[in-house]
């Protein structure tokens, strides 16, 4: 399935992980915007017209501003699109931590390293 009319923001501080996420999304005809930390993602979100992004894929552990803080700021921005899906990209697999991410405002999660099957499930769930 192609999602070429969908706009995704990939937020990842590790260059290699960001490149892999971008390449993986390319398999679904998505050319995402990229941010290297949560502050940059927040700034990009706030500077974009409302409704620009359909999905944000957010690393949790980043310098400058982590994914949880960035998500909280997006959620409290008062914008009409502040409730868009924000999916945590994390190597964390502990159920309690995943539950905490959801309580903090993230919508869902995908484990790193990201598998194409998991990515496809996320894309179908939120963009399909």
How would you describe the shape? globular
Mind describing the biggest β-sheet? 5 strands, parallel
Find the structural class using helix and strand composition: alpha/beta
If you average the pLDDT, what whole number results? 96
> How many structural domains?
1
Which range does the strand content fall in?
15-25%
Rg, alpha carbons: 13 Å
The helix/strand order is EHEHEHEHEH
CATH architectural group = 3-Layer(aba) Sandwich
Total strands: 5
What's the CATH topology name? Rossmann fold
- State the helix count: 5
**What is the CATH superfamily?**
Response regulator
Low-confidence stretches: none
Question: What does the model show?
Answer:
It is globular and about 35 Å long. Helix 2 runs parallel beside helix 3. The chain has 128 residues and is α/β, with parallel strands linked by helices. The model has no long low-confidence stretch (mean pLDDT 96). A five-stranded parallel sheet has the order 2-1-3-4-5, with helices on both faces. The chain contains five helices and five strands, in the order βαβαβαβαβα. The chain has one domain: Rossmann fold, CATH 3.40.50.
